[in-house]
Every structure is written in C-alpha cells, then in structure tokens.
Amino acid sequence: MKASILTIGDEILNGTTIDTNSAYIAKQSVANGIAIAGIYSISDSYNGIYEGLEIAGKNADIIFITGGLGPTKDDITKQALANFFKTELCFNASVFEKIESYFKKRGNKQVELNRKLAMIPSSAELIPNDKGTAMGMRFVQHDKIYISMPGVPNEMRYMLSNYILPKIASEKNLPTILNKYIMSAGIGESAIYEKIEDIEASLPPGTTLAYLPNLGNVKLRLTTTVNEDSAKAIANLSAIQSEISQRIAQHVYSFNENESLAKCVGDLLIKKKMTLSTAESCTGGYISHLITSIPGSSAYFEGAITAYSYDFKEKLLGVSNKTLNTYGAVSEETIQEMTRGLLKKLGTNYGIAVSGIAGPGGGTPDKPVGTVWIAVGNKNEVKAKCFSLTNQREYNIKISAQIALNMLRNFILENES
Amino acid sequence: MKASILTIGDEILNGTTIDTNSAYIAKQSVANGIAIAGIYSISDSYNGIYEGLEIAGKNADIIFITGGLGPTKDDITKQALANFFKTELCFNASVFEKIESYFKKRGNKQVELNRKLAMIPSSAELIPNDKGTAMGMRFVQHDKIYISMPGVPNEMRYMLSNYILPKIASEKNLPTILNKYIMSAGIGESAIYEKIEDIEASLPPGTTLAYLPNLGNVKLRLTTTVNEDSAKAIANLSAIQSEISQRIAQHVYSFNENESLAKCVGDLLIKKKMTLSTAESCTGGYISHLITSIPGSSAYFEGAITAYSYDFKEKLLGVSNKTLNTYGAVSEETIQEMTRGLLKKLGTNYGIAVSGIAGPGGGTPDKPVGTVWIAVGNKNEVKAKCFSLTNQREYNIKISAQIALNMLRNFILENES
Q1: Is B108 an interface residue toward A (CB < 8 Å)?
Q2: Which of B210, B305, B346 comes nearest A303 by C-beta?
Q3: Rounded to 5 degrees, what angle do the CA atoms A270, A272, A277 make?
Q4: What are the tens digits of pLDDT across the range A313-366?
Q5: pLDDT digits over B14-55, tens only?
Q6: Cβ–Cβ contact B17 with A under 8 A
Q7: Proportion of chain B above pLDDT 90, given as a percent
C-alpha cells in the first residue's frame, strides 16, 4: 500500500513555514504499514492544486492532502477538488449549522462567509473535525482514495489518527507494524554498531534496525511487520531489544520512544525520594530548564544557581577566592568546590555543576573554547570530568546538559547498588 | 523566473527527518526574486530520482536538487542524473585528489570508495563544496538549469549562498528584492493591523507587508522589487518602515530580522554599563538560558537563582515565611519580595522575577493553571504584573520569558528618560 502527500500553501513555497505536517503524516502512515511514495508541496492556486492532484495520484493508492481549507482559501481548493472529481459544490446544511454554532459561541456572525464554507463537493464523504470548523473530505476515484484535511496541525493530526487511518487500516486489512525502541546515552552510533554488528547481521527477514542520533544520544528503532501471530512477533522483537540492550547495558536509559534524559533522571529521583539542585556557569540555566520542563518536577527539583561571574561563584556557591585565582573558573578544583558548595548551601541529595567556555570568545591556548568541566555528586562523593567540545556556543550548551544528566543518572545508579 | 525544489531522501519519506532544506532554499530564492513553483520530496531510488527530475522540471526554469550524494547513496543519484542528462559517469582526477586529501587528514584510507565518489556525470559543471566532500553539480538542458547539492544543511547553505545564487542572479539579471523588518513585542497581530490599516492600504504597487507572529512577538516584513533606482527604493521602503514604527513605537525593539529580545536587552545593558540577574520559579531557568545564549552575555549577566520550593524562596531570595504562607508563592507580595531579595542579594542594577503555575497540575479555583506573576525592577522601583496564560506548560514557560524580557526592556527605557 503506497500513499503520497500533497501540501497546499504559499507560505511553504516562499519558505515562511517549514512543512512539518508531511513528516507527521509520513510517520503515522509508515507506522500503519503504508509507504510514502512522494511528498509534493504546491501553491494555493487552482492550477497548482489540480496539477498537484494529478502528480500525487500517479504512483499512490492513497493521497493525503493538507491545507487550502479555511475562510480565505476555501473556494479555490474546493472548486479544484470538485472539478478534479467531476462533481459540483453543493450547500451542506449540517456543515453550515456546525460552523454557525462554532462562530456564534465566539460572538462572530458572518452568515455569508459561513454559507461559503458550507459549500462541499457533492461526492465527498465528510470527515469530522473535532478541533475546528473546516471539515475533512474523502473521495474515491479509479480505486484511489483521496483525503483532504485542514492544514492546521492539531486539527489535521486529530482527524488523521482518530478517523482516517483507523478506517483505512480496517478497509485495506493493513499489516500491523511493530516498533520497539532503545534510548541510549554516552555512546556513539559507530560504537554501538561495533558492539551489535552480529545481532544486526542476523536479524530475521522483515525486521530492521535504525540508528537515530540526536545531541549525543542515540535512539535505536527496531521495526517488524506482523501478518499473523502478533503475540509471537511482539515476543520476538522484545527478545532482540533485550539482546541489544544487554550489549550496551549501562548506556540504555529508557525503552520509551523519545523519552528525555531529564524525565529519566526525574523518575529515578521520585523512586528514591531524593532531591536535586544545579550550579551552572556556561550552561546558564539550561539544565535547570530541561529538568523543570518535566511536569511534576517540583517533587524532586529544589532550585538552581547560575553563577556567571567569579564574584557570584564565591558569593552564591562558596567557591574560595584562592581556588578561582589559582586554577581559574574552568578547572577541576573550581567545579569540585561548586558542587560541594551547592550541596552544602541548598541541602539537596544530589547536585550537578558545570563550568566551561561555551564560546565563541573566552578561549586561551591552555583552555580553548569548548573546554567544559562537569561534575555530579552527593555529600559523600563528587565525580568531575573534563570535556573538549566544539566552537559552537549553542551546541556546547546543549550537549553539556545531556552529558551532565547522563553522568547524574549513572551516579544515582552506582550509588544504588 | 520560477524554480522548483527536489529533495531526495528516504528519511524524509518515512517521517524521520523534517525537510528544512526546502524552506531554506525557498526563502533564499524568494529573496533573490525567484518564485518557487513546487517542492517535491522523493525516494533514494533510481526511478524516484528520474521521475522527480521530470516532475520538478515541468513548470520551472531552475531546479534545485538536494540530497542523494555522499558515500552510501552516491551511485544511484549520479547514474540517474547522467541518464537524465544523456551523459556518462567519468572519473574526475581533481575531485578524487580533493576527496583523498580530505579523508587522509582524518586518517581514513578508502581508495576504492573514494574512486567511486570521484565518478562525475561528464556534462556537469562542478560547484565547489567548502564544507565537505560531495561536490555540487550544475546541468543545463532545454534552457533549464538543474543544480544538484549535498543534503547536509550547512554544506548546502554555504554552496547556495556563495556560489549558486550569485551566479544565477548575474546571469539572469534578476531584479533585486529589498526587505525591511520591524521586530515588535507586547502587541498582537490584529492590534498592529488596526493601528496601521491606512498605511497598509496605501502601500505603493509592488510593495507588500507580511505579519509573522512568533511566541507573542510579531515580525513585520516589508518587501519591494527594485528594477532601476535602488537608492530611491531603499529610501522609500525606509520611509514606510519608519511610518509604521512610529504608530507602534514603544513595541518596536529592533529593525534587524530575527533579533531576539534577549539580544536587544543585552545591547541596552552594555550601552548603559548595567548588570542583570534573574529569580525564576515557574520558568525554571529558561530566562537565564535565553540571556546566556547570547555570546558576550557575561559582560552584563551576573547570575540567576531558580527557587522552585518555598524553602528556597526563603533561603536564597529572602522571601519572608509569613508572606509565602499568607499570600502563596504565586502572588504580588511574593514576586515583589523575590525581586527585592534578588537585587539585595546579588547587587545587580536590574532584576527579573517570575512565579506562576506552569501546569498541567498545581492549579486552584483562585489561581488556575496559567496564572503567572512577572516583575522587573531596580533598587528604586519594582513593577509587577499578573498574567492569565494557557494550560500548556511549555508555552507558558516560553511566553512568560518573552513577556519578562519585554517588561525589562520597557523598564530600562523608562528609567533612561
């Protein structure tokens, strides 16, 4: 089963909007056993849409269309659809009623515009829009299914997941696609490959493994197609997942797709009823931001001190003037004192400290841009490490935060055993 | 002059990668007076590429192609290009030398692979790649220009801006497109529209105005096409920019495209030789992160305290126990004490404080999720305001940070006069 995606919108063609709808539709389709043959973005014009429908229909059984619906663009898209499917626009009373009641609630009375919005190609089967006013439409022509959806992402996503894909899956008797994930940190793509090369080489037919790296962490995705015995397929995929995990054991932090290290660390702290605080210099509050982005983080996160200046490292974290002047702010001695000072001052069970030169300025021959000290600890022990990162400020900040969270995860686990 | 964009890559078709290259190419093309007729994403396969070239060439004078180059995918793409342009793959000695020296520096000796990478369709004019090994290629067929670029974003961007677009602009004698920007904060799209409706209605022919909102701030973009007298066109556009700015004067923070509020506040502080610190509760260090993301921020930013718990608001910021227990952490009394405590403790010239309920949990009937107090001040005065935001945690954190930075900007400017 093959699909294509047609996105309608001048804002995509002039580069103002990045087309994220297509990636969403593609991902959901692939997860349902539908391959994507092509993605086509065309202009909000009659000819653009008509030609787009011809191109998108060429190599596909299903054509997903987004955009071109809504108050200002509606006419052209619906007229193009009506002509392409050799049908006519008709006033639809129930659609009109729905639009009227939606806008009345918002104090808006545009009867004429609403009447226009309620003109629907007569051969369309309507798809409910639970998040807005523009209805979805489904057409069938020469055995191909054409689905027109609004371009507003949350409306489109809800419609696709709740109405469109379930119907296609049941009609077309699609195979089930199973995915299992391994979220890893502190190990690179090629190092993982070396450790699991033999497992990958002997994957059963129809099962694939993808390496998806992001900011120093690697997501592994195992995929298989289930035709008959789904319990057996799940068990088989789980066995492979577990075999791979054992090879890179200490690097695996979750089996949930896209779970963040901040969430993983938070769950560990909740389980152990422990608390955390951070002392940040070059990361400037970014680690604290990642931790507090997790709902419920107030249960374990008490606070953070961003100490950018020497003065504040002394005043807020109790780093000694002598240490700063002898070894500098980016040194093992300072990072140790920052961590101990933080734990003493804030009294949390665990602490993270970071001090480095994020760049682009501030480097010296001894300590070039990208030199970053990271420490994690509790009242008994502080572990500090030095990293040589890049000359990109934003990247250095973000990767340092991931390294720090992973160091804390390992520290908590080591202290557990 | 019309162009189309063809992106090659299975990772786009299965939804793993969002196609950001197309938006970049589209934006740069439009800025050079080239309209985009369509964007097409197709698979890493011979047939996909060959058909893609046919479709993309249909309504366009220029066809930008990205992806499909590089060690693993190279063969198929180059073979498809060679056949499409009725030419042959030939070994290119100078390309081979370049690749050899690139990989030798990295201790990598794959002579056979390098020979394959150096096979180039013989009718291609090569385009230098200053950021990597895969060369760009330019073909001309039936008066249409086809440009093949690597898919790695920084390689493609450098090549496009430094070699490809300048050459097309000079060959095709393209009109110059002029843009002027107004970055505004603290005012919505429709409020701006009401204030400048008459200016917009009387824009000269060929001049357009776009409203581009992002996280509470609105970027205004004025665009005009210059055919002859460019000095006059610049003067005319500047006059309109200045007329619009006067109508929304206190909301305009920059005329530089995409300048952030954090950068604008930083520049103000540098100019006045003043310092800043922040006290954050619900924003959890995000404001501190935005400020310290600006290179050179250590000149004015001293530090930040994220005080998540009651205890830490007392211990680190000196908020009184009585205030917290009487009014709660999310109250005017607490935010006032947080700001004064911060300024006293850290001794900076200015301070920002935020305390609120980011959600999804923690709301009460009196103080529902989305209630956020924000204050800015110096030793003489603290200004505090309460906002009713949404039930989306991430959005609340990000919009609060923008509001706080804009409040500080206004506060600094008011104190100046």
Answers
A1: no
A2: B305
A3: 65
A4: 999 999 999 999 999 999 999 999 999 999 999 999 999 999 999 999 999 999
A5: 898 899 999 999 999 998 889 999 999 999 899 999 999 999
A6: yes
A7: 78
Tokens 């250095």 belong to A396
Helices and strands, number each (H, E), in chain A:
16, 17
- Which pLDDT does position A73 carry in this prediction? 66
- CB within 8 Å of B395: residues ≥ 6 apart: B389
Place of tokens 């385009």: B127
Alpha-carbon Rg for chain B in angstroms? 27
| DSSP tag of A249 | G
- Omega prior to B153 cis, within 30 of 0: no
- B18, B55, B286: residue with CB nearest A289: B286
Predicted complex: ipTM over 0.90: no
Q: What kind and span of H or E run contains A8?
A: strand A2-8
A282, closest residue in chain B (CA to CA)? B292
Q: Which of residues 341 through 360 in chain B touch A, CB cutoff 8 A?
A: 346, 359-360
* Residue A108: predicted pLDDT: 64
Chain segment B163-216, per-residue pLDDT in tens: 999 999 989 888 888 999 999 999 988 899 999 999 999 999 989 998 888 888
Alpha-carbon distance A375 to nearest alpha carbon in chain B (angstroms): 19
Report pLDDT digits (tens) over B114-128. 888 889 999 999 999
Q: CB under 8 Å to B179, separation ≥6 — which residues?
A: B31, B221, B222, B223, B257
Q: Is the C-alpha dihedral spanning B86, B87, B89, B95 positive or negative? A: negative
How many beta carbons lie within 10 A of that of residue A255, not counting itself?
14
Helix (H) or strand (E) holding A277: strand A276-280
Contacts of A309 in chain B (CB under 8 A): 298, 302-303
- The larger pLDDT score, comparing residue A235 to residue A189, is at A235
In whole numbers, what is the pLDDT of chain A averaged over residues? 93
Q: Are A55 and A89 in contact (CB under 8 A)?
A: no
DSSP string for residues in B74-132: HHHHHHHHHHHTT--EEE-HHHHHHHHHHHHHTT---HHHHHHHTEEETTPEEE--TTS
| pLDDT tens column, A81-115 | 999 999 999 999 998 998 888 777 766 667 777 88
Chain mean position to CA B404 = 21
Separation CA A163–CA A141 (nearest Å) = 20
Which residues 190-229 of chain A have a CB within 8 Å of chain B? 210, 212
Helices and strands (H and E) in chain B: how many:
16, 17
Tell me which residue in B18, B303, B306 faces A18 most closely, judged by beta carbons. Answer: B18
The one-letter amino acid code at A209 reads L
Choice between B266 and A69, residue whose per-residue pLDDT is larger: B266
Look up residue A160 and give its DSSP letter: I
The minimal CB distance from B304 to the residues A55, A285, A302 is found for: A285
- Provide Rg for chain A, Cα atoms: 28
Q: Write down the pLDDT at residue B227.
A: 75
Q: Which domains does chain A have, with CATH numbers?
A: 2-172 (3.40.980.10), 176-254 (3.30.70.2860), 261-416 (3.90.950.20)
Q: Which residues contact B185 (CB under 8 A, 6 or more apart)?
A: B216, B217, B218, B251, B253, B261, B402, B405, B406, B409
pTM: 0.87
> How many whole angstroms separate alpha carbon B300 and alpha carbon B231?
38
pLDDT, tens digit, for every residue of B212-227? 888 889 999 999 988 7
Sign of the C-alpha dihedral computed for residues B189, B194, B199 and B204 taken in this order: positive
B43 CB within 8 Å of a chain A CB: yes
CB-CB under 8 Å, B16 with A36? no
